[in-house]
Protein backbone atom coordinates (compact mmCIF):
# COMPACT_ATOMS: atom_id res chain seq x y z
CA UNK A 1 0.00 0.00 0.00
CA UNK A 2 1.56 3.24 -1.14
CA UNK A 3 -0.33 5.29 1.45
CA UNK A 4 0.94 3.13 4.30
CA UNK A 5 4.49 3.49 2.98
CA UNK A 6 4.00 7.24 2.55
CA UNK A 7 2.94 7.62 6.17
CA UNK A 8 5.84 5.44 7.31
CA UNK A 9 8.52 7.36 5.45
CA UNK A 10 7.16 10.88 5.40
CA UNK A 11 5.55 11.21 8.84
CA UNK A 12 2.18 12.83 9.58
CA UNK A 13 0.62 14.14 6.39
CA UNK A 14 -2.65 15.55 5.13
CA UNK A 15 -4.57 13.60 2.50
CA UNK A 16 -3.78 16.36 0.01
CA UNK A 17 -0.03 16.09 0.69
CA UNK A 18 -0.12 12.30 0.38
CA UNK A 19 -2.04 12.56 -2.89
CA UNK A 20 0.55 14.92 -4.38
CA UNK A 21 3.63 13.11 -3.04
CA UNK A 22 2.45 9.63 -4.02
CA UNK A 23 0.87 10.70 -7.32
CA UNK A 24 -2.48 9.16 -6.37
CA UNK A 25 -5.99 10.44 -6.91
CA UNK A 26 -7.43 12.16 -3.81
CA UNK A 27 -10.28 9.64 -3.74
CA UNK A 28 -7.77 6.76 -3.64
CA UNK A 29 -5.89 8.32 -0.72
CA UNK A 30 -9.11 9.00 1.19
CA UNK A 31 -10.28 5.41 0.71
CA UNK A 32 -6.91 4.01 1.80
CA UNK A 33 -6.85 6.22 4.90
CA UNK A 34 -10.37 5.12 5.85
CA UNK A 35 -9.25 1.48 5.63
CA UNK A 36 -6.09 2.14 7.65
CA UNK A 37 -8.18 3.88 10.33
CA UNK A 38 -10.66 1.00 10.42
CA UNK A 39 -7.80 -1.48 10.88
CA UNK A 40 -6.24 0.79 13.55
CA UNK A 41 -3.00 1.13 11.59
CA UNK A 42 -3.09 4.93 11.55
CA UNK A 43 -4.59 7.75 13.54
CA UNK A 44 -6.25 11.01 12.61
CA UNK A 45 -5.07 14.19 14.34
CA UNK A 46 -6.06 17.85 14.16
CA UNK A 47 -3.87 19.97 11.95
CA UNK A 48 -3.24 23.16 13.90
CA UNK A 49 -2.04 25.03 10.82
CA UNK A 50 -5.16 24.16 8.74
CA UNK A 51 -8.11 22.70 10.64
CA UNK A 52 -9.84 21.79 7.34
CA UNK A 53 -7.17 19.20 6.55
CA UNK A 54 -6.54 16.67 9.34
CA UNK A 55 -3.18 14.97 9.68
CA UNK A 56 -2.76 11.20 9.50
CA UNK A 57 0.09 9.25 11.06
CA UNK A 58 0.89 5.60 11.66
CA UNK A 59 -0.02 4.35 15.09
CA UNK A 60 2.98 3.23 17.18
CA UNK A 61 2.28 -0.50 16.70
CA UNK A 62 2.12 -0.18 12.90
CA UNK A 63 5.28 1.93 12.86
CA UNK A 64 7.11 -0.70 14.92
CA UNK A 65 5.86 -3.51 12.67
CA UNK A 66 7.11 -1.67 9.58
CA UNK A 67 10.42 -0.81 11.24
CA UNK A 68 11.04 -4.42 12.23
CA UNK A 69 9.88 -6.28 9.17
CA UNK A 70 9.72 -3.79 6.32
CA UNK A 71 6.66 -2.91 4.27
CA UNK A 72 6.38 -6.04 2.12
CA UNK A 73 6.65 -8.50 5.01
CA UNK A 74 4.38 -6.44 7.28
CA UNK A 75 1.64 -6.26 4.64
CA UNK A 76 1.92 -10.01 3.98
CA UNK A 77 1.59 -10.76 7.71
CA UNK A 78 -1.50 -8.58 8.21
CA UNK A 79 -4.82 -10.32 8.81
CA UNK A 80 -6.79 -11.30 5.72
CA UNK A 81 -8.34 -8.35 3.96
CA UNK A 82 -5.94 -5.72 5.24
CA UNK A 83 -2.94 -5.94 2.98
CA UNK A 84 -4.11 -8.07 0.13
CA UNK A 85 -6.12 -7.26 -2.95
CA UNK A 86 -9.89 -6.95 -2.69
Question: Can you tell me about this structure?
Answer:
The chain has 86 residues and is mostly helical. The protein has one domain (2-77): Arc Repressor Mutant, subunit A. Helices cover 56% and strands 9% of the residues. It has helices spanning 2-10, 15-22, 26-38, 60-77, and strands at residues 42-45, 55-58. A two-stranded antiparallel sheet has the order 1-2. Helix 2 (15-22) packs across helix 3. The longest helix is centred in the C-terminal third of the chain and has 18 residues, at 60-77. It is globular. The model is unreliable at 81-86 (pLDDT under 50).
Q: How are the SSEs ordered, and which strands pair?
A:
Blueprint: H1 2-10, H2 15-22, H3 26-38, E1 42-45, E2 55-58, H4 60-77
Antiparallel strand pairs: 1-2
Features:
single chain; 4 helices; disordered C terminus; Arc Repressor Mutant, subunit A; mainly alpha
- Rg, please? 12 Å
Helix amount: 55-70%
Query: Low-confidence parts lasting 5 or more residues at pLDDT below 50?
Result: 81-86
Mean pLDDT: 84
Structural class label: mainly alpha
CATH class: Mainly Alpha
- CA-based shape: globular
In total, the number of domains comes to: 1
Quantity of strands, as a count: 2
Mind describing the biggest β-sheet?
2 strands, antiparallel
CATH topology: Arc Repressor Mutant, subunit A
Measured between the Cα atoms of the first and last residue, the distance is 12 Å
Assigned CATH architecture: Orthogonal Bundle
Helical region count? 4
Fourth CATH level, the homologous superfamily: Winged helix-like DNA-binding domain superfamily/Winged helix DNA-binding domain
> Going across the major beta sheet, what is the strand order?
1-2
- Give the DSSP E fraction (strand runs of 2 or more residues): 5-15%
Amino acid sequence: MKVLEGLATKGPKTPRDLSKELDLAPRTVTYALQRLLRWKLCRKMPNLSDMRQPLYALNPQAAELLRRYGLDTAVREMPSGIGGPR
